[in-house]
Amino acid sequence: MSPECSMTDAPKEEILVSTTSPETRVALIQQGVLKEFNLDRQASRGQVGNIYAGIVNRVLPGMQSAFIDIGLERSAFLHVTDLWQCRMDGHKTTPIEKLLYPGQPLLVQVIKDPIGSKGARLTTQISIAGRMLVYLPHDPHIGIAQRITDETERNRLLERVKVLAAQGHDGKASEGGGFIIRTVAEGAEDEVLMADIQYLRRRWAQILEAAQANASGKPAGSRQPEQLYHELPLSQRVLRDMAWAGTQSIIVDDPETLATMRTFCQTYMPNLEEKLRLHEGSRSLFDLYQVDEEVERALARRVPLKSGGYLIFDQTEALTTIDVNTGGYISGRNFDDTVFRTNLEATQTLARQLQLRNLGGIIIVDFIDMHSAEHRETVLQSLRSALQQDRTKTTVNGFSSLGLVEMTRKRTRDSLERMLCEPCTACHGKGTIKTARTVCYEIMREIAREARQFDPKEFRILASQQVIDLLLDEESPHLAILGENVGKPITLHVEPAYAQEDYDIILA
């Protein structure tokens, strides 16, 4: 939510933190509705923000990229445009083969977690996030978040950070580097900004010391990748990235986690400490706020609208498509009015679902066709307005010539579906399976092929209950004809562990 909203018109916002030994789950609740969900599992903790002393594995001039060993299961990917040396050259891009070579040690940071079969995405443009600021050790630029819209406040913050950054700390000259002023810094005083600057520069100095220790006294060929800096655990990232002055409460269900968060608040953000409280009661925290039920609905392909319409979400490797349908909704003076109202309602639900499902990359929205240009523009503005509450960067390109809205949403980690689910072993991710009749005919064709090559005493079919039932009933005449043609007995056996598409033909 944008911090520039006043406390009077800001929606009621609560943050729930639920911790068990294997995982931490966080839910952002606005007006009693789940707006965002995130989790951090011990077995598969995200890598975004982590800094590594990596080793260049391969340099690919044709792709202007390189694969870097950072100690993960798969080598990570680095494109030439993510090398800070290239960014410092302005418009001129030096070929990657002139900057990197196999075996070269390289300080890198993860900007995208491994997704599917792809390794992590890296950059050498290091950034370290604090509460108020993001530190850019290699870039002297001072920038500011777009969500700080007041021009006077923007100018004040830019000027103050520029002055404070030039002072350095402990009487020393400035260590250089640049800063991005975060949205939460709106209204911050000099002492708070300076504390963040000093903290971030200390962290960077510690990273450099660790990198030098990793390289010192070791021959080039014997160096191993090493993690030098890891992002905060989810319970603390919540305080840094999600909580703000408009957050009414941060409810935690684990005393140990609460103590850790309280200590973090006392050190870095004392104004949030009073918002922390321990959940007490017989009902679990997420059960009380019906979070698990909302997550289940967010995993469904179909999302109902209050009007009776619905959205259909289809997620693929390349993009996500969202189809808007009126369903049984009939309202307004005519059909055009019904379509317009359904599309308007869909924009709010769509924006919430994108955030809740953490869908990223290319997104195509197929709104119901609208003949009125005014209606299309209103729906587009409604969508952009709804997306303003999303902290993840989104870009809406408007309606295409085919009447589709093309948009992008920055992707840094797996979607909710890919975090919580895996491909179905029956359909292998297709979403459909062959009918029992189709499988029956495949079995018959297979027996006919086998009979031409082999001379068994019998053919034994192992298949699911549905397939065997069909072979014994409606398809039994065809099976009998097949038995006569091959001149061998055909026996049927149910294999309870088999899915509908699975079968085996044993030559006995």
Can you describe what's shown?
- The protein is α+β, with helices and mostly antiparallel strands and 508 residues long.
- The protein folds into five domains: 13-44 and 233-291, 2-Layer Sandwich (Nucleotidyltransferase, domain 5), CATH 3.30.420.60; 50-123, OB fold (Dihydrolipoamide Acetyltransferase, E2P) (Beta Barrel), CATH 2.40.50.140; 128-229, Ribosomal Protein S5, domain 2; 301-420, Aminopeptidase (3-Layer(aba) Sandwich), CATH 3.40.630; 436-507, Ribonuclease E, catalytic domain (Hypothetical Protein Ychn, Chain: A, 3-Layer(aba) Sandwich).
- The protein is 32% helix and 25% strand.
- It contains 13 helices and 24 strands.
- The chain has helices spanning 84-88, 151-167, 190-215, 234-242, 255-268, 285-288, 291-298, 335-357, 373-387, 416-420, 436-453, 465-472, 476-486; strands spanning 13-19, 23-30, 33-41, 51-60, 65-69, 76-79, 105-112, 121-123, 128-129, 133-136, 142-144, 178-181, 226-229, 247-252, 276-278, 302-304, 310-315, 319-325, 361-366, 394-399, 405-409, 459-463, 490-494, 503-507.
- Strands 4, 5, 6, 7, 8 and 13 form a six-stranded antiparallel β-sheet that branches. A six-stranded mixed β-sheet has the order 16-17-18-19-21-20, with helices on one face. Strands 3-2-1-14-15 form a five-stranded mixed β-sheet, with helices on both faces.
- A hairpin with a 5-residue loop joins strand 20 (394-399) and strand 21.
- The radius of gyration is 29 Å and the shape is globular.
- 28% of the residues are buried.
- This is Ribonuclease G.
